[in-house]
């Protein structure tokens, strides 16, 4: 299990721009786990927002996608997927 970092340590350790995401506890840990799997630097602690280091546009898109997959309504996600498939088939 990764060690918990203080937000100041986090910024110094990764030397990146960081942002905080305020999510419910379950979503926070779900997003944290997925970002860890994607090797995106992040920190999550009890009663603290999820802190995410975003250094590239690709990471920003990945973070957005992970959060949307966790918090968006399932109907919105399926509608988005349908639109993607329709665009691909043209």
Question: What does this entry look like structurally?
Answer:
The chain is mostly helical and 90 residues long. The chain has one domain: Alpha-Beta Plaits (2-Layer Sandwich). The protein is built from four helices and three strands. A three-stranded antiparallel β-sheet has the order 1-3-2. Helix 2 runs antiparallel to helix 3. It is globular.
**In one word, what is the shape?**
globular
> How large is the radius of gyration?
15 Å
Order of helices and strands: HEHEEHH
User: Beta-sheet strand percentage?
Assistant: 5-15%
**Which stretches are low in confidence, meaning pLDDT under 50 for 5 or more residues running?**
1-15
Largest sheet: 3 strands, antiparallel
CATH architecture descriptor name: 2-Layer Sandwich
CATH topology: Alpha-Beta Plaits
**Cα distance spanning the termini:** 45 Å
Helix tally? 4
Give the proportion of residues in helices. Answer: 55-70%
CATH class: Alpha Beta
Note the main attributes of this structure.
4 helices; disordered N terminus; Alpha-Beta Plaits; three-stranded antiparallel β-sheet; about 90 residues; about 55% helix; globular; single chain; mainly alpha; 3 strands
